[in-house]
């Protein structure tokens, strides 16, 4: 699946620019590509697979219209939530949803929003967040259990 997604121009560019680095244009003009340096990184599929115990059903914490979320613990002991994009009708739509969310949550800094730690494009499209034991925004707003 990585081959499928890595052929996309937008995903190839995202992964080749280097997270938290200057773009080629910015290097030539000595300007930063963005005013806030990205702190997220690319996770390997093996890392998120191990952290979620193979995406075990006991680690499933949420299911939405276009994604499922699993909790996990990284090798260094950090609690994470792995959001796997699954519901789009086409690979192109799934990729668009992934890039839209990555572009949005990648820049959000707020105490009530789980921080984006990174992503993985191996064997699907995955976003990795800090795990919040307080539940989802929806469950907190509407009083639903996860």
From TrEMBL:
- GO MF annotations in UniProt: ATP binding; protein kinase activity
SUPFAM superfamilies assigned to the protein according to its UniProt record, in alphabetical order: Protein kinase-like (PK-like) (SSF56112)
Question: InterPro entries of this UniProt entry?
Answer: Kinase-like_dom_sf (IPR011009), Prot_kinase_dom (IPR000719), Protein_kinase_ATP_BS (IPR017441), RBK1/2/STUNTED (IPR046958), Ser-Thr/Tyr_kinase_cat_dom (IPR001245)
Binding positions for ATP per the UniProt entry: 83
Which keywords belong to this entry? ATP-binding, Kinase, Nucleotide-binding, Transferase
PROSITE patterns in alphabetical order:
PROTEIN_KINASE_ATP, PROTEIN_KINASE_DOM
Indicate yes or no for the key word Transit peptide: no
Name the domain of life this protein comes from: Eukaryota
Gene3D superfamilies (UniProt xref): Phosphorylase Kinase, domain 1 (3.30.200.20)
Q: Which residues form the Protein kinase domain?
A: 55-146
What is the name of this protein? Protein kinase domain containing protein
Query: Which organism is this entry from?
Result: Musa troglodytarum (fe'i banana)
């Amino acid at each position: 699946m990585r081959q499928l997604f890595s052929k996309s121009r937008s995903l190839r560019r995202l992964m080749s620019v280097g997270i938290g680095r200057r773009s080629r244009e910015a290097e030539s003009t000595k300007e930063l590509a963005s005013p806030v340096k990205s702190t997220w990184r690319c996770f390997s599929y093996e890392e998120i697979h191990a952290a979620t115990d193979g995406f075990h059903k006991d680690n499933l914490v949420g299911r939405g219209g276009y994604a499922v979320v699993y909790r996990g613990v990284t090798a260094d002991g950090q609690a994470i939530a792995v959001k796997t994009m699954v519901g789009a009708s086409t690979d192109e739509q799934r990729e668009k949803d992934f890039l839209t969310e990555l572009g949005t949550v990648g820049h959000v800094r707020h105490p009530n929003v789980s921080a984006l730690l990174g992503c993985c494009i191996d064997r699907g499209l995955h976003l990795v967040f800090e795990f919040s034991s307080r539940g989802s925004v929806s469950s907190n707003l509407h009083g639903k259990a996860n």
